[in-house]
Amino acid sequence: MTLDSPAMDHLANASIKRLSVLAMFVCFNVLGNVDFEHLANKSVTCSLVQSTKDSNQTILVGKLVGYRDTQSRAILVERGVIQNIGVIEEIRARAPYANVINCNDGYISAGFVNAHEHPPYSAGKPGPNVSPVYSNRYQWQGSAGDQYPEIAYSRVENDAQLFWVELRHLLAGTTTMAGNGAVPGLLKNVGSGDKDVGFVYEADMKTFPFPQAIDEFNDLPLPYSGPSVEPELTEGVDTQSPYIPHIAEGKDDLSRVEAQLFLDYVERNPGRRFGLIHGVGLSRSDVPRMRSLDVTLIWAPRSNLALYGETVDVPHLLENDVRVALSTDWSYSGSYNMLESFKCAQHVVDERWNSGVSAKVLWRMATENGAYALDLEEKTGALKPGLAADLVIVKAKTDDPFADLIASEVADVMATFVDGKLVTGDRSAFDLSELPASCSNFVGDYFVCDDLSERDFTWQQLLAINEDAVPLFESEGQASCSF
Length: 483
Ligand SMILES: [Zn+2]
What we know:
Elements: E1 2-3, H1 5-16, H2 20-31, H3 36-40, E2 47-51, E3 57-64, E4 72-78, E5 81-86, H4 88-94, E6 99-110, E7 112-114, H5 137-141, H6 159-171, E8 174-178, E9 188-191, E10 199-202, H7 213-216, E11 246-247, H8 253-268, E12 274-278, H9 286-293, E13 295-299, H10 301-308, H11 314-319, E14 324-326, H12 338-352, H13 359-366, H14 368-373, E15 391-395, H15 401-407, E16 413-418, E17 421-426, E18 441-443, E19 446-448, H16 459-465
Parallel strand pairs: 1-2, 3-6, 7-8, 8-9, 9-10, 11-12, 12-13, 13-14
Antiparallel strand pairs: 2-6, 3-4, 4-5, 6-15, 15-16, 16-17, 17-19, 18-19
Protein backbone atom coordinates (compact mmCIF):
# COMPACT_ATOMS: atom_id res chain seq x y z
CA MET A 1 0.00 0.00 0.00
CA THR A 2 1.49 3.32 -0.98
CA LEU A 3 0.29 6.83 -0.45
CA ASP A 4 1.35 10.18 -1.79
CA SER A 5 2.29 13.11 0.42
CA PRO A 6 -1.13 14.84 0.87
CA ALA A 7 -2.67 11.56 1.92
CA MET A 8 0.11 11.02 4.43
CA ASP A 9 -0.44 14.49 5.81
CA HIS A 10 -3.99 13.54 6.41
CA LEU A 11 -2.83 10.49 8.33
CA ALA A 12 -0.41 12.46 10.46
CA ASN A 13 -3.00 15.07 11.36
CA ALA A 14 -5.60 12.52 12.23
CA SER A 15 -3.19 10.74 14.52
CA ILE A 16 -3.23 13.67 16.93
CA LYS A 17 -6.92 13.17 17.36
CA ARG A 18 -6.51 9.48 18.15
CA LEU A 19 -8.41 8.57 15.01
CA SER A 20 -5.83 6.42 13.31
CA VAL A 21 -8.23 3.68 12.25
CA LEU A 22 -10.66 6.16 10.74
CA ALA A 23 -7.73 7.93 9.13
CA MET A 24 -6.70 4.74 7.41
CA PHE A 25 -10.17 4.33 5.95
CA VAL A 26 -10.08 7.89 4.62
CA CYS A 27 -6.58 7.51 3.23
CA PHE A 28 -7.37 4.26 1.53
CA ASN A 29 -10.50 5.83 0.16
CA VAL A 30 -8.33 8.47 -1.47
CA LEU A 31 -6.56 5.71 -3.31
CA GLY A 32 -9.76 3.94 -4.08
CA ASN A 33 -8.59 0.39 -3.51
CA VAL A 34 -9.63 -0.48 -0.01
CA ASP A 35 -10.91 -3.71 1.46
CA PHE A 36 -13.27 -2.01 3.91
CA GLU A 37 -14.85 -5.20 5.13
CA HIS A 38 -11.48 -6.68 6.06
CA LEU A 39 -10.40 -3.55 7.91
CA ALA A 40 -13.71 -3.04 9.68
CA ASN A 41 -13.39 -6.45 11.30
CA LYS A 42 -9.87 -5.86 12.48
CA SER A 43 -8.65 -3.87 15.44
CA VAL A 44 -5.69 -2.12 13.84
CA THR A 45 -3.65 -0.16 16.37
CA CYS A 46 -0.54 0.58 14.32
CA SER A 47 -0.67 1.64 10.70
CA LEU A 48 2.28 1.48 8.37
CA VAL A 49 2.45 3.56 5.25
CA GLN A 50 5.33 2.94 2.89
CA SER A 51 6.65 5.94 0.99
CA THR A 52 6.37 6.00 -2.77
CA LYS A 53 9.84 7.56 -2.95
CA ASP A 54 11.94 4.69 -1.64
CA SER A 55 12.73 6.91 1.32
CA ASN A 56 15.39 6.16 3.93
CA GLN A 57 13.38 8.21 6.43
CA THR A 58 10.70 6.85 8.74
CA ILE A 59 8.39 8.75 11.05
CA LEU A 60 7.14 6.94 14.16
CA VAL A 61 4.11 8.34 15.93
CA GLY A 62 3.10 7.57 19.52
CA LYS A 63 3.36 8.78 23.11
CA LEU A 64 7.00 9.08 24.05
CA VAL A 65 8.14 7.64 27.37
CA GLY A 66 10.42 9.99 29.26
CA TYR A 67 9.57 12.91 26.99
CA ARG A 68 8.41 16.19 28.50
CA ASP A 69 4.71 15.52 27.87
CA THR A 70 2.54 12.53 27.05
CA GLN A 71 0.93 13.91 23.88
CA SER A 72 1.50 11.93 20.71
CA ARG A 73 4.72 13.01 19.11
CA ALA A 74 6.69 12.06 16.05
CA ILE A 75 10.20 10.66 15.86
CA LEU A 76 12.04 11.15 12.58
CA VAL A 77 14.46 8.33 11.87
CA GLU A 78 16.97 8.43 9.05
CA ARG A 79 19.27 5.51 8.26
CA GLY A 80 18.53 4.00 11.65
CA VAL A 81 19.35 7.11 13.70
CA ILE A 82 16.91 9.43 15.48
CA GLN A 83 17.17 12.77 13.67
CA ASN A 84 14.44 14.76 15.33
CA ILE A 85 11.59 14.53 17.80
CA GLY A 86 8.65 16.89 17.90
CA VAL A 87 5.14 17.88 17.01
CA ILE A 88 3.77 15.67 14.28
CA GLU A 89 3.05 18.44 11.75
CA GLU A 90 6.56 19.88 12.10
CA ILE A 91 8.23 16.54 11.64
CA ARG A 92 5.98 15.78 8.67
CA ALA A 93 6.97 19.08 7.08
CA ARG A 94 10.65 18.17 7.44
CA ALA A 95 10.19 14.79 5.83
CA PRO A 96 7.11 14.81 3.57
CA TYR A 97 8.03 11.58 1.81
CA ALA A 98 9.05 9.51 4.81
CA ASN A 99 7.53 6.14 5.62
CA VAL A 100 5.07 6.51 8.50
CA ILE A 101 4.39 4.07 11.30
CA ASN A 102 1.59 5.33 13.48
CA CYS A 103 1.06 3.57 16.82
CA ASN A 104 -0.97 6.35 18.30
CA ASP A 105 -2.27 4.23 21.18
CA GLY A 106 1.17 3.09 22.16
CA TYR A 107 3.92 4.27 24.45
CA ILE A 108 7.23 4.48 22.61
CA SER A 109 10.26 3.92 24.82
CA ALA A 110 13.92 3.41 24.15
CA GLY A 111 14.42 -0.34 23.83
CA PHE A 112 15.69 -2.05 26.94
CA VAL A 113 19.42 -2.53 27.44
CA ASN A 114 19.99 -5.80 29.26
CA ALA A 115 23.53 -5.50 30.57
CA HIS A 116 23.80 -9.08 31.80
CA GLU A 117 22.79 -12.27 30.01
CA HIS A 118 24.56 -15.47 29.01
CA PRO A 119 22.85 -16.33 25.69
CA PRO A 120 24.38 -19.82 25.30
CA TYR A 121 23.28 -20.61 28.87
CA SER A 122 19.80 -19.24 28.61
CA ALA A 123 17.77 -21.72 26.62
CA GLY A 124 16.78 -24.09 29.46
CA LYS A 125 14.45 -23.93 32.43
CA PRO A 126 15.67 -24.05 36.04
CA GLY A 127 16.08 -27.51 37.52
CA PRO A 128 14.76 -28.75 40.88
CA ASN A 129 17.92 -27.83 42.80
CA VAL A 130 17.54 -24.10 42.18
CA SER A 131 16.65 -22.83 45.63
CA PRO A 132 17.97 -20.13 47.96
CA VAL A 133 20.29 -22.35 49.96
CA TYR A 134 23.62 -21.02 48.74
CA SER A 135 26.11 -18.52 50.12
CA ASN A 136 28.33 -18.20 47.05
CA ARG A 137 28.46 -19.31 43.42
CA TYR A 138 30.87 -22.19 44.03
CA GLN A 139 28.23 -23.98 46.06
CA TRP A 140 25.64 -24.21 43.26
CA GLN A 141 28.42 -24.91 40.77
CA GLY A 142 29.28 -28.08 42.71
CA SER A 143 32.84 -27.11 43.58
CA ALA A 144 32.34 -26.35 47.29
CA GLY A 145 31.57 -29.84 48.55
CA ASP A 146 28.88 -32.48 48.22
CA GLN A 147 26.71 -30.90 50.90
CA TYR A 148 25.60 -28.30 48.35
CA PRO A 149 23.40 -29.59 45.54
CA GLU A 150 24.80 -28.69 42.13
CA ILE A 151 22.31 -27.04 39.83
CA ALA A 152 21.77 -28.41 36.33
CA TYR A 153 22.27 -26.31 33.20
CA SER A 154 23.43 -26.78 29.66
CA ARG A 155 25.00 -24.79 26.88
CA VAL A 156 23.55 -24.36 23.42
CA GLU A 157 25.83 -23.90 20.45
CA ASN A 158 23.97 -23.45 17.23
CA ASP A 159 22.53 -20.28 15.76
CA ALA A 160 18.92 -21.50 15.72
CA GLN A 161 19.03 -21.93 19.50
CA LEU A 162 20.80 -18.62 20.12
CA PHE A 163 18.34 -16.91 17.75
CA TRP A 164 15.48 -18.23 19.92
CA VAL A 165 17.06 -16.87 23.10
CA GLU A 166 17.54 -13.45 21.53
CA LEU A 167 14.04 -13.48 20.04
CA ARG A 168 12.64 -14.15 23.53
CA HIS A 169 14.33 -10.99 24.79
CA LEU A 170 13.43 -8.96 21.72
CA LEU A 171 9.72 -9.80 21.95
CA ALA A 172 9.84 -8.37 25.48
CA GLY A 173 11.46 -5.11 24.37
CA THR A 174 15.21 -5.69 24.72
CA THR A 175 17.11 -4.23 21.80
CA THR A 176 20.66 -4.34 23.20
CA MET A 177 22.04 -7.20 25.26
CA ALA A 178 25.42 -7.93 26.82
CA GLY A 179 26.84 -11.40 27.24
CA ASN A 180 29.13 -13.82 25.50
CA GLY A 181 27.33 -15.54 22.63
CA ALA A 182 25.37 -13.90 19.82
CA VAL A 183 23.68 -14.21 16.46
CA PRO A 184 23.95 -11.44 13.88
CA GLY A 185 21.14 -9.19 12.78
CA LEU A 186 18.50 -9.57 15.46
CA LEU A 187 19.05 -7.49 18.61
CA LYS A 188 22.35 -5.73 19.25
CA ASN A 189 24.86 -7.87 21.11
CA VAL A 190 27.59 -6.52 23.33
CA GLY A 191 30.59 -8.64 24.28
CA SER A 192 33.88 -9.86 22.94
CA GLY A 193 33.54 -11.26 19.46
CA ASP A 194 33.34 -10.46 15.77
CA LYS A 195 30.67 -8.35 14.17
CA ASP A 196 30.13 -11.26 11.79
CA VAL A 197 29.07 -13.32 14.77
CA GLY A 198 26.69 -10.61 15.95
CA PHE A 199 28.62 -8.40 18.35
CA VAL A 200 27.89 -4.78 17.52
CA TYR A 201 29.70 -3.27 20.51
CA GLU A 202 32.69 -4.52 22.48
CA ALA A 203 32.83 -5.15 26.21
CA ASP A 204 34.83 -7.48 28.41
CA MET A 205 32.13 -9.65 29.99
CA LYS A 206 34.64 -11.95 31.72
CA THR A 207 32.29 -13.87 33.96
CA PHE A 208 34.37 -14.97 36.93
CA PRO A 209 37.60 -12.93 37.07
CA PHE A 210 38.89 -14.35 40.37
CA PRO A 211 38.98 -18.14 39.80
CA GLN A 212 41.10 -18.56 42.94
CA ALA A 213 38.40 -17.07 45.17
CA ILE A 214 37.01 -20.42 46.36
CA ASP A 215 40.42 -21.56 47.60
CA GLU A 216 42.03 -18.35 48.75
CA PHE A 217 39.58 -15.57 49.58
CA ASN A 218 37.74 -17.05 52.55
CA ASP A 219 40.72 -16.67 54.86
CA LEU A 220 41.66 -13.14 53.85
CA PRO A 221 41.07 -10.40 56.43
CA LEU A 222 38.57 -7.66 55.68
CA PRO A 223 39.40 -4.94 54.91
CA TYR A 224 42.15 -6.56 52.91
CA SER A 225 45.49 -4.74 52.91
CA GLY A 226 47.90 -7.28 51.41
CA PRO A 227 49.49 -7.36 47.95
CA SER A 228 47.20 -6.48 45.08
CA VAL A 229 45.27 -9.29 43.42
CA GLU A 230 44.59 -8.88 39.70
CA PRO A 231 41.30 -10.00 38.17
CA GLU A 232 41.49 -11.88 34.89
CA LEU A 233 40.64 -10.02 31.71
CA THR A 234 39.44 -11.52 28.44
CA GLU A 235 42.35 -11.85 26.08
CA GLY A 236 42.19 -9.65 23.00
CA VAL A 237 39.54 -7.26 24.28
CA ASP A 238 40.38 -3.56 24.01
CA THR A 239 41.15 -2.29 27.51
CA GLN A 240 39.29 0.94 26.66
CA SER A 241 36.03 -0.99 26.39
CA PRO A 242 33.78 -1.60 29.41
CA TYR A 243 34.74 -4.30 31.90
CA ILE A 244 31.75 -5.96 33.58
CA PRO A 245 32.52 -9.12 35.56
CA HIS A 246 30.43 -11.00 38.15
CA ILE A 247 31.55 -9.76 41.54
CA ALA A 248 30.38 -10.44 45.10
CA GLU A 249 27.93 -13.03 43.85
CA GLY A 250 27.02 -14.38 47.25
CA LYS A 251 26.69 -13.25 50.83
CA ASP A 252 29.72 -14.69 52.62
CA ASP A 253 33.23 -13.40 53.34
CA LEU A 254 34.54 -14.74 50.06
CA SER A 255 32.05 -12.55 48.21
CA ARG A 256 32.87 -9.50 50.32
CA VAL A 257 36.61 -9.90 49.69
CA GLU A 258 35.93 -10.16 45.97
CA ALA A 259 34.11 -6.83 46.01
CA GLN A 260 36.96 -5.06 47.74
CA LEU A 261 39.62 -6.57 45.46
CA PHE A 262 37.65 -5.58 42.38
CA LEU A 263 37.20 -2.00 43.54
CA ASP A 264 40.91 -1.86 44.42
CA TYR A 265 41.64 -2.94 40.85
CA VAL A 266 39.30 -0.30 39.42
CA GLU A 267 41.02 2.36 41.48
CA ARG A 268 44.42 1.29 40.16
CA ASN A 269 43.22 1.07 36.55
CA PRO A 270 41.00 4.01 35.63
CA GLY A 271 40.21 4.93 32.04
CA ARG A 272 37.41 2.59 31.07
CA ARG A 273 33.79 2.03 32.02
CA PHE A 274 33.24 -0.44 34.88
CA GLY A 275 30.22 -2.41 35.99
CA LEU A 276 29.82 -4.96 38.72
CA ILE A 277 27.30 -7.77 38.22
CA HIS A 278 25.31 -8.95 41.29
CA GLY A 279 27.01 -7.33 44.30
CA VAL A 280 24.91 -9.27 46.82
CA GLY A 281 27.95 -9.37 49.09
CA LEU A 282 28.80 -5.69 48.91
CA SER A 283 29.90 -4.12 52.19
CA ARG A 284 28.63 -0.70 53.22
CA SER A 285 32.15 0.66 52.74
CA ASP A 286 32.07 -0.42 49.08
CA VAL A 287 29.15 1.87 48.26
CA PRO A 288 30.88 5.29 48.38
CA ARG A 289 33.76 3.76 46.45
CA MET A 290 31.39 2.63 43.70
CA ARG A 291 30.12 6.16 43.39
CA SER A 292 33.54 7.80 43.34
CA LEU A 293 34.91 5.18 40.92
CA ASP A 294 31.76 5.38 38.74
CA VAL A 295 31.05 1.64 38.91
CA THR A 296 27.51 0.68 37.89
CA LEU A 297 25.76 -2.08 39.83
CA ILE A 298 24.18 -4.54 37.39
CA TRP A 299 21.19 -5.85 39.29
CA ALA A 300 19.65 -9.30 38.71
CA PRO A 301 17.01 -9.52 41.46
CA ARG A 302 15.41 -12.84 40.53
CA SER A 303 18.72 -14.65 40.22
CA ASN A 304 19.86 -13.26 43.58
CA LEU A 305 16.69 -14.34 45.38
CA ALA A 306 16.48 -17.74 43.67
CA LEU A 307 20.02 -18.72 44.69
CA TYR A 308 20.90 -16.68 47.77
CA GLY A 309 17.56 -15.58 49.21
CA GLU A 310 18.86 -12.00 49.29
CA THR A 311 19.51 -9.19 46.93
CA VAL A 312 21.54 -6.01 46.96
CA ASP A 313 20.25 -3.02 48.92
CA VAL A 314 19.29 -0.91 45.92
CA PRO A 315 17.71 1.99 47.87
CA HIS A 316 20.99 2.38 49.75
CA LEU A 317 22.91 2.49 46.46
CA LEU A 318 20.51 5.05 45.03
CA GLU A 319 20.70 7.22 48.14
CA ASN A 320 24.47 7.23 47.65
CA ASP A 321 24.19 8.13 43.95
CA VAL A 322 25.45 4.79 42.71
CA ARG A 323 24.09 4.02 39.26
CA VAL A 324 22.05 0.81 39.03
CA ALA A 325 21.16 -1.06 35.82
CA LEU A 326 18.56 -3.81 35.65
CA SER A 327 19.35 -7.14 33.96
CA THR A 328 18.00 -10.66 33.61
CA ASP A 329 20.95 -13.04 34.07
CA TRP A 330 20.62 -16.52 32.52
CA SER A 331 17.40 -18.53 32.32
CA TYR A 332 18.47 -21.08 34.95
CA SER A 333 18.02 -18.72 37.88
CA GLY A 334 17.21 -15.34 36.34
CA SER A 335 14.28 -13.66 34.64
CA TYR A 336 13.23 -14.89 31.22
CA ASN A 337 13.12 -11.33 29.90
CA MET A 338 13.35 -7.70 31.05
CA LEU A 339 9.60 -7.42 31.66
CA GLU A 340 9.93 -10.31 34.11
CA SER A 341 12.89 -8.52 35.70
CA PHE A 342 10.66 -5.48 36.18
CA LYS A 343 8.09 -7.66 37.92
CA CYS A 344 10.64 -9.16 40.26
CA ALA A 345 12.19 -5.77 40.98
CA GLN A 346 8.75 -4.32 41.71
CA HIS A 347 8.01 -7.24 44.03
CA VAL A 348 11.19 -6.53 46.00
CA VAL A 349 10.34 -2.83 46.07
CA ASP A 350 6.85 -3.52 47.42
CA GLU A 351 7.76 -6.23 49.91
CA ARG A 352 11.15 -5.17 51.13
CA TRP A 353 11.58 -1.48 50.51
CA ASN A 354 8.09 -0.19 51.08
CA SER A 355 7.72 1.31 47.59
CA GLY A 356 10.89 3.38 47.89
CA VAL A 357 11.89 2.98 44.22
CA SER A 358 9.57 4.42 41.56
CA ALA A 359 8.51 2.87 38.26
CA LYS A 360 10.39 5.66 36.49
CA VAL A 361 13.60 4.75 38.32
CA LEU A 362 13.18 1.07 37.36
CA TRP A 363 12.57 2.08 33.73
CA ARG A 364 15.73 4.19 33.77
CA MET A 365 17.68 1.21 35.12
CA ALA A 366 16.54 -0.79 32.09
CA THR A 367 17.34 1.84 29.49
CA GLU A 368 19.84 4.66 29.95
CA ASN A 369 21.63 3.13 32.95
CA GLY A 370 22.21 -0.13 31.10
CA ALA A 371 23.53 1.88 28.16
CA TYR A 372 25.82 3.87 30.47
CA ALA A 373 27.25 0.71 32.03
CA LEU A 374 28.16 -0.49 28.55
CA ASP A 375 29.55 2.92 27.53
CA LEU A 376 26.74 3.25 25.00
CA GLU A 377 24.89 6.30 26.30
CA GLU A 378 25.86 8.20 23.16
CA LYS A 379 24.66 5.34 20.96
CA THR A 380 21.42 3.94 22.39
CA GLY A 381 19.20 3.73 25.48
CA ALA A 382 17.22 6.98 25.16
CA LEU A 383 14.92 8.86 22.81
CA LYS A 384 17.41 11.49 21.75
CA PRO A 385 18.55 12.86 18.38
CA GLY A 386 21.82 11.24 17.34
CA LEU A 387 21.10 7.94 19.05
CA ALA A 388 20.07 4.73 17.31
CA ALA A 389 16.32 4.24 16.85
CA ASP A 390 16.27 1.16 19.09
CA LEU A 391 12.71 1.23 20.34
CA VAL A 392 9.90 -0.69 21.97
CA ILE A 393 6.22 0.21 21.73
CA VAL A 394 3.78 -1.03 24.38
CA LYS A 395 0.05 -0.60 24.74
CA ALA A 396 -0.92 2.50 26.71
CA LYS A 397 -3.41 1.48 29.40
CA THR A 398 -3.19 4.40 31.82
CA ASP A 399 -1.77 7.91 31.81
CA ASP A 400 1.38 6.71 33.57
CA PRO A 401 3.82 5.43 30.94
CA PHE A 402 6.34 4.18 33.50
CA ALA A 403 3.81 2.17 35.47
CA ASP A 404 2.39 0.77 32.23
CA LEU A 405 5.80 -0.21 30.95
CA ILE A 406 6.99 -2.06 34.00
CA ALA A 407 3.63 -3.83 34.36
CA SER A 408 3.61 -4.89 30.69
CA GLU A 409 3.46 -8.51 29.60
CA VAL A 410 4.96 -9.68 26.34
CA ALA A 411 1.38 -9.55 24.98
CA ASP A 412 1.39 -5.78 25.59
CA VAL A 413 4.42 -5.22 23.36
CA MET A 414 3.16 -3.94 20.02
CA ALA A 415 6.47 -3.70 18.20
CA THR A 416 10.24 -3.50 18.51
CA PHE A 417 12.68 -1.64 16.29
CA VAL A 418 16.44 -2.00 15.97
CA ASP A 419 18.21 0.81 14.11
CA GLY A 420 14.81 2.06 13.02
CA LYS A 421 13.88 -1.23 11.41
CA LEU A 422 10.75 -3.04 12.52
CA VAL A 423 11.90 -6.41 13.86
CA THR A 424 9.00 -7.91 15.79
CA GLY A 425 5.37 -7.03 16.27
CA ASP A 426 1.98 -8.14 17.47
CA ARG A 427 -0.02 -9.51 14.55
CA SER A 428 -3.26 -8.05 15.87
CA ALA A 429 -1.74 -4.56 16.12
CA PHE A 430 -0.88 -4.30 12.42
CA ASP A 431 -2.51 -4.84 9.09
CA LEU A 432 -0.23 -7.62 7.89
CA SER A 433 -0.69 -6.62 4.25
CA GLU A 434 1.17 -3.37 4.99
CA LEU A 435 4.29 -5.07 6.35
CA PRO A 436 7.51 -5.67 4.40
CA ALA A 437 7.86 -9.15 2.91
CA SER A 438 10.60 -10.02 5.43
CA CYS A 439 8.00 -9.86 8.23
CA SER A 440 6.25 -13.05 7.17
CA ASN A 441 7.72 -15.28 9.89
CA PHE A 442 5.07 -16.05 12.47
CA VAL A 443 5.17 -17.52 15.95
CA GLY A 444 2.19 -17.37 18.30
CA ASP A 445 0.60 -13.94 18.04
CA TYR A 446 3.74 -12.32 16.66
CA PHE A 447 5.54 -11.67 13.43
CA VAL A 448 9.31 -11.52 13.08
CA CYS A 449 11.01 -9.55 10.32
CA ASP A 450 14.10 -11.45 9.29
CA ASP A 451 15.43 -12.49 5.91
CA LEU A 452 16.13 -16.11 6.71
CA SER A 453 17.97 -16.67 3.43
CA GLU A 454 21.08 -15.42 5.23
CA ARG A 455 20.76 -18.04 7.98
CA ASP A 456 21.50 -21.73 8.12
CA PHE A 457 18.03 -22.71 9.34
CA THR A 458 14.47 -22.33 8.12
CA TRP A 459 11.67 -20.92 10.21
CA GLN A 460 10.21 -24.40 10.63
CA GLN A 461 13.57 -25.76 11.79
CA LEU A 462 13.82 -22.92 14.29
CA LEU A 463 10.45 -23.79 15.80
CA ALA A 464 11.25 -27.50 15.90
CA ILE A 465 14.70 -27.31 17.49
CA ASN A 466 13.45 -25.03 20.26
CA GLU A 467 10.37 -27.01 21.20
CA ASP A 468 11.70 -27.72 24.70
CA ALA A 469 13.52 -24.42 25.20
CA VAL A 470 12.34 -21.61 27.48
CA PRO A 471 9.12 -20.39 25.84
CA LEU A 472 9.11 -17.09 23.98
CA PHE A 473 6.18 -15.40 25.66
CA GLU A 474 5.39 -17.22 28.89
CA SER A 475 7.06 -17.31 32.27
CA GLU A 476 6.32 -20.99 32.77
CA GLY A 477 8.99 -22.68 34.90
CA GLN A 478 10.88 -19.45 35.62
CA ALA A 479 12.88 -19.23 38.87
CA SER A 480 11.06 -17.85 41.87
CA CYS A 481 11.28 -14.21 42.97
CA SER A 482 10.35 -14.68 46.61
CA PHE A 483 12.12 -14.18 49.90
ZN1 LIG B 1 25.30 -14.02 35.28
